[in-house]
Amino acid sequence: MTASRLSLATLARLPPDVARPGYDPAAIDIGIVHVGPGAFHRVHQAWYVDRLLRQDPRWGICAVSLRSAELQEALAPQDGLYTLAVRDQQCSHQVIGALRESLVAPRDPGAVLQRLAAPGIHAVTLTVTEKGYCLGADGALDLARPDLQQDLATPHSPTTLIGFLVESLSRRRAAGTAPPAILSCDNLSDNGPRLRAAIVAMAQARDRGLADWIAQEVAFPRSMVDSITPATTDALRAEVAAATGLEDRWPVQREAFVQWVIEDHRAAAGPDWAAAGAILTDDVPAWERAKLRLLNGAHSTLAYVGLLAGHATVSGAIADPALAGFIERLWAQEVLPGLGAPRGLDLVAYAGAVLARFRNPVIRHELAQIAWDGSQKLPIRIQDGLAQNLAEGRPVTHLFLPLAAWMLWVRRAARARQRLVDPLADALHELGAAATGEARLDVSRWLAEPRLYRRELASDPRFITGLMRAYDRLAAADAAGAAAVGNCVATWS
Q: What is the dihedral of CA 102, 108, 113, 115, to 10 degrees?
């Protein structure tokens, strides 16, 4: 017999060990718009908001999808409810009720703009990945993009995140409505200031007065988010149905560890994020660098090297002594020395905790998923630290390995005619298909593509030599098979 569907009408049927919202989801107001309501948002920001709603009913979420209607179609019959599975040594399940409205921008851009401009919205949060910010290789807004040009031509019917935000802020200015705080929650270095610069640049292209108003009145706090979030699978759906007795079309899962660090922007009208458990600080960049270089950098390293070595998951890769030893040497020799510890964070203890999280056997975090969007992730996860070490005279030997592994992984995918998930997929596929395995030729071609490597690195002889050496060593190992890759990594120096 098919289980009943999760909904407001079936909440009372949940077994006692499944936590349910500590408030009436139907009675809360919408005070937050979130753009990009994927799995991470629903395990992270929405979970924090769920906690906040127990004491303050003003902060229900309107979820805005910029492309897909999948979330709306899955959760609308469930009254916006979904199940969060927290997976650790002991697993738990809870139903989240924070999502009170779901809009799909291509279907109804007017409704999205109306909600964004509504006086009751005091916070806009974003998880759109690096691709959603429409930035060029220099980190600034790429106004030459056709989609941004279209948004400038038809501002009342935008298609991009930047277009929606600028138009909604324009409407607020015209109506005399105070702007919301706009909070990027993406793994983007200096995410708040970079978003602010992009929004102001777009506004400047429309109206100098609007740009000045945004620059003066709108808060774009930095933030750092953390929780390992594997993709939803049919196995998870079956597990959730067994645990809750109800069908949930789109449950989500994460590890027990969860963290949200937000720049203290003192927005009196907005949500009390600290009351929900977030860390407010005046030094988000230090927290961010620690997470990007220790956790995210290690994730990308394990993804590309681990896939070449025959592994499929993070826990499987870190169980390989060669890869675990490499990560520990990478951190000790080339990452930790360049990090400044923010107040309240012990970097050595944090690194140890990251290793323990990677080893969690209950979390099946696919390396192939982490490997997506390498052109966007590696500049901030690996290249930034490598550039700093070169500038400050520290070792860089280990930091070349994930870059070389990425190139070889792209080569392997191109030869197998596998689809690459990356905004530069076409360029990468061309490079991978043309790769010979010979370092001088392949690396030169990659460095000639200006969108892949930081400009100062691509022209630095030390970087070029180091990358060629790493690529040559790893390519030879890759040609010999997975075991040879493991041996190569084990002896890397």
A: -30
Answer yes or no: do 222 and 349 share one domain: no
Instruction: Specify the pTM.
Output: 0.84
Number of H helices, E strands in the chain: 23, 14
- 28: domain CATH number is 3.40.50.720
Asked if residues 367 and 302 have their Cβ atoms less than 8 Å apart, the reply is yes
Q: Is the dihedral of CA 86, 4, 33, 65 positive or negative?
A: positive
* d(C-alpha 136, C-alpha 142), whole Å: 5
352/210 same-domain check: no
Are 252 and 272 in the same domain? yes
Q: With beta carbons less than 8 A apart as the criterion, state whether 84 and 143 touch.
A: no
Residue spans of beta strands (DSSP E) within 107-180: 123-126
CA distance 134 to 147: 9
pLDDT at 378: 95
From the list 267, 256, 437, 433, the residue with the least C-alpha distance to 356 is: 256
How far out from the chain centre does Cα 194 lie? 15
292: amino acid identity, one letter: L
Domain shared by 444 and 372, yes or no:
yes
Supply the pLDDT for residue 267: 67
Q: How far apart are CA 208 and CA 201, in angstroms?
A: 10
The DSSP letter of residue 450 is: T
User: What pLDDT sits at residue 138?
Assistant: 81
- Give the whole-angstrom CA distance, residue 286 versus residue 164: 30
- Cα separation, 290 vs 342, in Å, equals 9
Judge contact between 183 and 221, C-beta under 8 A: yes
Could you give the 3-state DSSP secondary structure of residue 275? helix
Three-state SS for 414? helix
Mean pLDDT by 10 residues, the chain (493 residues): 84 96 96 97 98 97 96 96 93 97 97 98 95 88 96 97 98 97 91 96 97 97 94 95 97 96 84 95 92 95 98 97 98 96 91 95 91 93 96 96 98 95 96 96 96 94 98 97 97 95
- CA 84 and chain centroid, separation: 18
Asked if 260 and 326 sit in the same domain, the reply is: no
**Same domain assignment for residues 29 and 149:** yes
**292 in the same domain as 273:** no
